[in-house]
Fold these 3 entries.
Entry 1:
Amino acid sequence: MIGSIVARTTVEANPSFVDPAAGVSICAYREPDSGCKDVSVTNNLVGGAEYGGFVGAIGHRCYDTSSTNFKNNIAHSIIGTLSGAGAYINRHVADPEQENCFEISNFKAYKCHNTPFVTYSTGKKVVMSRMTFIDNKEGFTALLSHADSYDEDIVIEGNDIKIMGETDSPDCPINGGFCDIYHKRGYITSAITWAGKAMHITDTSPLPPQNIMSISAWGSKIVFNRLTF
Amino acid sequence: MTNTVFAVGSFVPDYVAMHEFYDTKFIDVEGDAVTYIYDPPKKWANIKDCGNFPCTGPANILLSFKGSKFEGIRPDYATADFQIISNNPGFSQYVPECEFHKGMNAWSCE
């Protein structure tokens, strides 16, 4: 199925208001949505959406390669006010086991105006696996919100992720109608903080989602295996 | 334009935990393109945020690499096992076997 997603222009609000938007919002628009169950988001492509390609509380249990909660999705050219994430995915709140460990896997993003991927969820461990990011402005990153600042079992883990900078696809295509050249980064340092953020952030101040506005937790472990740059 | 593989978040005043990277593969990555670690902004020295001095989060970055592999262009300082630390004026220059890289505003260490 092919759909066209257009940002609405009829909202009247103060200048700092950000209209909740995304290509696909999954169990996130009215978060925390503990009644959101049996949702499977697979094999989708979102291009040119505002704020996030995929915004969802739709992680899966760690190291479960059979999960189809969120799998084989692609986002590109996502843009927004101080935002533009290929995917902003947190744990699935309807699955209490994910409080201990949740994973997001099998995702690709290219030419996003901000980050290709970010997670900023409550929980004790997040795993990112089997992702590919090409030619995005900011790097991917992961943050966890955990109130016990000295808990040393808080882990951010990434496995088998490929990050590519420039590609043959130009940032200033001839007669393309745009020219966006900027300093690009592959990965932004991860962190654990006391407080997290909403998935659909509706004010410019906290944006982008990975902009830390909370006290950092001291006990934490950040490990990446088999990254390719 | 200078693209970098690793970057420090733009607002990390408190603390960034050590990052451990295992079996990382670098393909055509030049030395100064591995990272750029900014100094703590002076504007962080205010009562609301950090008090009389800027919070030192960016000054205490440690990226640890083990089992790294390289193809094509490669950083001349990098080996399979190496580390990158912030340019912390009270610390970095005293660490043995570390080399400063102006383009990264950081030190590589064996």
Entry 2:
Amino acid sequence: MDITQYKDVYVFAEQRGGVVQKVAFELLGKARELADALNEKVVAVLLGKDIENKAQDLIQAGADKVLVVDNDALKNYMTEPYTQALSQIINERKPDILLLGATTIGRDLGPRVSARVTTGLTADCTKLEIGENGEFLMTRPAFGGNLMATILCKDHRPQMATVRPGVMQRLEDTSARKGEVEKVEVSFNMEKINRVKLLESVVKPKTTKDITEAPVLVSAGRGVHKEYYGHLRELADELNGEVSASRATVDAGNMDHDLQVGQTGKTVRPKLYVACGISGAIQHLAGMEESEYIIAINKDKFAPIFGVADIGIVGEVEKIVPLLTEKIRNLKK
Amino acid sequence: MNIVVCIKQVPDTTEVKINPQTGTLMRDGVPSIMNPDDKGGLEFALQLKDKYNAHVTVITMGLPQAEAILREALAMGVDRAILLTDRKLGGADTLATSNSLAGALRTLDYDLIITGRQAIDGDTAQVGPQIAEHLDIPQVSYLEHLDFDGKKTLTIRKQTEEGYQVLQMDTPCLVTVLASAVKPRYMHMRGIAAAYKKEIEVWGADKINVPEEKIGKAGSPTSVAKAFPKSIKPAGSLFEGSAEEAVNLIVSKLKEQHII
């Protein structure tokens, strides 16, 4: 592989149901910074059906060029047609770097593509930068978030990385930007595509709001029995916030995966994070330590959660939370 | 029906703590466990064994001590256990790992390959889809429910951010499973006793017929340039007292922060 032939920073612009996902705009913001450091271009890859009209938004978010593949086979995300389209683009265009969102789709597509084109893929990066010698440095949590590791992909291209939603920030500069839109044809192997059939796509009505958008989160850990979740809900309601959970709580089947904060859940940055009965495994801290203000309540005064909390309360969630809710409620009267 | 489940031994990362004084990892006494998503995958396989008399093989790649999770799988009821272990396979990233496991799988009869969605020590979710690609079989990841028609068609519910998808594919194929989808069975006493009588097959790199440039460190496109402890912000104040006092303190802080 002659790596000098590979250039430009590509972003897989994930869309679902014709809506470009927030993470794609965040990646374009980071891609812009990387491309400027390398003196290369930012190229967004938009795959779907009747989605060309979204290309301008990608240019506005930092892309110099948008490659659009518009095809019936790409209407809904399916592993094989998307892998074929993205792999062909890689083989023909030779990107230096390719970024994908670490979403259900990106984490399905990324590895399949990396194996097809034989290159490295670094998952869930929290920091991407260009080193002194122009090398691409991908930093991610390792060992369940207990350590950070900086990864290199020296001799293979593209250098692929996924980034979780909410980690990077979209460009702040909103002045009008110009770019090029190019429609690309891909030849599909339908026999391989037809090996998997999509029978049904179900969008569940949201019973809860997106926890990444909530200004306040009251989060339940293993130390709170599920019969007390109602107390947390009431406090969250009083603070115009939402309830979230640690992995232990979700794995025990007591809360929905949508509500999980942490390395394997969501990355959140609320104004206030109230950690209730959460010990503070590093994989949890990885998802919430950027919160503006953190209150932790835990019986164990050695709980690691206290290490990141602005105030730590050694005590019982079951007693403190209802009292707190009542006090706030009274203050509002 | 032949099912092969790929499992991994991982440190129980929820038990890992950081020394608050030095910011370093306290690895001592961290137990090793069967990766939770893999255990969920194993349960799905055993349910297919119960219902359709499927033959279930487990394979793990790792250090010799990974034998412990194979014994556990045998005690849960699997038919065959393979430990793929060799220095030549060490230092592998996900691509080299998937190449090694795919090599082992090529030598086995399989209709369905099951992996966990991801391992809790790496959290990459890459090895399952990469194995499927190397073997040129279709995959569905993030499986939360599985129906088998008893012949060759699987109907799968896949978790998505918005809800779920129902997908159908024929064997041979691969699925990656979520731990939260199913409650794994316990080892039963008779199973534990039997598990120690059963032989675990130990395979070396020579057994998998994959070129050396595709395995281990040589077969890994990515490498770790450096690893370092995470910077932790200084801890705030710690309060011990009555619930009433605690609530007063919280309220005053929330006022300071203009949250209430």
Entry 3:
Amino acid sequence: MSEAQLEIQAIALVTAVACALPGAFLVLRRMALMTDAISHSILLGIVLAFFVVGSVGSPLLIVGAALMGIVTVVLVETLANTKRVGKDAAIGLVFPALFSIAVILIARFADDVHLDVDAVLLGELAFAPFERLAINGYDLGPRALWVMGVILVVNLAGLALFYKELKVATFDSALAAALGFSPVLVHYGLMGAVSVTAVGAFDAVGSVLVVALMIAPPATAYLLTDRLSRMIATSALIGAVTAIGGFWLAHWLDASIAGSMATTAGFIFGLAFLFARDRGLVALLRRRKRQRWEFAQEMLVVHLLHHEHGPDAEQENRVAHLQEGLRWEGEFTEEVVGRARRRGLVSLADGLLTLTDAGRDRARRSFAA
Amino acid sequence: MFDLFTDYTLRTVALGAGILGIVSGVLGSFTVLRHQSLLGDAISHAALPGIVLAFLLTGSNEPLPLIVGAGVAGWLGTLLVRAIVRNTRIKNDGALGLVLSVFFGMGLMLLTYSQSRPDASQAGLDKFLFGQAAALLRNDVITIAILGGVAIVVVALFWKEFKLLSFDPEFGSVLGFRMGTIDVLLTTLVVIAIVIGLQTVGVVLMSAMVVAPGAAARQWTDRLGVMVCLSALFGALSGVTGALLSSTGARIPTGPMVVLSASAIVLLSLLFAPNRGLVWDKLRSRRVAISADPREQAGL
């Protein structure tokens, strides 16, 4: 591995973890698409700051971009609060407008400068190591690594300091207000963090990957655990795996690193979506199937109990009659009876079903419930 | 302004953008009413891998195969969003964000992969990303018109069903309609509206075209028929205005100009539409405040 490769992986790793931390709260608070809006509209912030400062390298561009992120959030909420359009429409109206203004400004006035819309949207991590941070001519490493490192530390510190507030405001905003800390403040603090993280990250990996890194790992973690702390830790871990896996996928295919990372993130989500232990699709289908048999057996014992000792028991409680009495298909009936016998709920003699004690118990319990 | 009648390129672009505005306006009305405005965003991003794959498989730049590829990918994306929302506790916004970013990333990966191979030529794909209305050809406009026309005819045929779906799907299923199928049909039409617009306004901005005209039209009326017609009108207006404005100066991209025109219509509608306009709201509340003034009530 060359030094540049190591540096790229380090940048990807730090970026992915820094994105996963606020992302977990966005997924929980149903604000995932705010990242989409912010990551697009910060382009306008960068362009405007560029016109003020006049240079592309200035850190003021990051400030301008982060401010535009907050402006986006405020605009979306103002628009949604008029009740004239839904919140989803508000997002869909605000960020394309801001993005359009940015694209027009760039095309018209800044086409010759290094402000490339492609680069902003798609990013190119492979070039990140070329931008070095040097103090007094001494090379300290890639600039992106420092920027994302600082953002990661800030996010970690914010998470540690306000963990309780974030947790309460996310799961029970009324309680948060009653306890005396404003959900609005928590909301804007979180949005500020998202905005700054998105700005730092899009410089390295492009705005679309920012969305992938902020949403996919937390959404995956959400399928794997029920505890907030574990969800955040899992998101960070999945983010890290995404970063390294995506890098090597890109290396292997000779393709865009950002695109490969997003693909890896999607692949990991797909695995969890299918195979998560409790919430995966496979577990879900298996549970549905089991419930179907459970329910059928319960119907069977209730039916038998109902007619037990009755005048028509001889006829009603025959296997052959179930097809008519319960409207079951022949094969299905056989399977249910077989399962119920194996579990010792019923016994079968000459086509006549009788309840065992356990079966009678089970039927009575289902009445009681 | 008179260039519209003399300049052939401008006429093609304005016509294409206008037709596109009508189609996305009609279908956008339904997405706005159903609170699915951001579905368009997801579809347009999700279309990218389909475009790249279609290009890799057919090796042609003709609009139709690319549109078909985009449509299939966008459609798969929406199905995935539905599957995620139905089977997990992830909500609509998370599923949309996930699908749009992952699909787009996949498209980007495929695109760069195809470019890195020696035999690659990928001219024409970039314009799907950011839209290049100026490069719209007569053939493209015909494709847009035919596909868009089909979509509008289907809307007219299934008008009652789509109305039920938008306002009271439960009632619809009680009446015996298959609301699930109708939902898939409407979503398919939205996918068509979006993929025919990708080339004109680009992936990023196409989402605005299925939101803005509908959101603006909603302010003016409470009737679905009027809303859909108004929305189509607003869409056409933004398309043509955007094309004209971008022709007034050098280096003004058409896609963003179309979106800004639509945004301006939304802003005006929000402020000044009769009844729902925010300006009238403000005036009304002031009048109420004045008439509630005790001195006035006392006749002073």
